[in-house]
Design a protein that fits this description.
The chain is an all-alpha fold and 137 residues long. The protein has helices spanning 6-17, 19-41, 52-62, 64-81, 85-96, 105-111, 116-134.
């Protein structure tokens, strides 16, 4: 396996670290579109050309931020779900335990049964898989 370029690593790491916030933002945008759908219809219902469900589906499908968030979320989730539970624990401790800083490998040894070198390999493989799914690598 070749080494991951530093710039790509940083981009992917930011997307992985922001995964919980991105997932929440994605759900909020979808809920907002669904909530506004009922307000736009009014008492007379939808128009004759399109059903309200079609309008809502078009809004969700055409929303540019939703598309990007969905690809990021799917990339992180698929790479994370493909890992064994012990490796998932390493990723969760490394990226999602502290809000803005990553947990040091020394501190992570308390949470997991792995040593620093093995945890670095697990994180590098995870970053590589997410990067491939995002098209960064």
């Amino acid at each position: 396996m070749s080494k991951i370029p530093r710039e790509a690593w940083r981009i992917i790491e930011i997307k992985v670290r922001r995964y919980p916030e991105s997932k929440l933002e994605y759900q909020n945008i979808v809920d907002e579109i669904l909530h506004n759908r009922t307000e736009e219809q009014g008492p007379g219902g939808g128009g004759a050309e399109e059903s309200p469900t079609e309008k809502m589906a078009i809004k969700i499908a055409d929303h540019p931020r939703l598309k990007r968030l969905e690809t990021e979320i799917n990339a992180v989730e698929s790479a994370y779900n493909a890992m064994i539970p012990e490796h998932q624990k390493v990723i969760q401790a490394r990226f999602w335990s502290y809000r803005y800083t990553k947990m040091s490998y020394f501190d992570m040894e308390r949470c997991t049964s792995y040593r620093e070198r093995q945890m670095r390999r697990i994180v590098a493989n995870f970053i590589r898989e997410v990067g491939k799914k995002l098209g960064e690598i």
